[in-house]
Input
Amino acid sequence: MRKHLARIDGPSPTDLAAIDFEWPLIAAELDVLDAEIALLYAEDRGGPTPMDWRRLRRAEARVTKTAAELAADTAAKATQPKLRPGGRRQAA
Output
């Protein structure tokens, strides 16, 4: 049995920044999940309506669009030159 447990203070500032950066995609994926759950519950009403299917398609499109935007933002950040303190570029 362990007598000493590792102390966990929670996510680091870097972790929180990554979560904040990815939050639009997380929210879009939650919208897909909500739409899928609505489809499951629609069985109790006689089946999904055209509006239920539209909600799912739109949520899936938002995930695709948001993922593409995040990928583009990540690629843009990766190609930006690194700045030294004082605002000067570092030598490559």
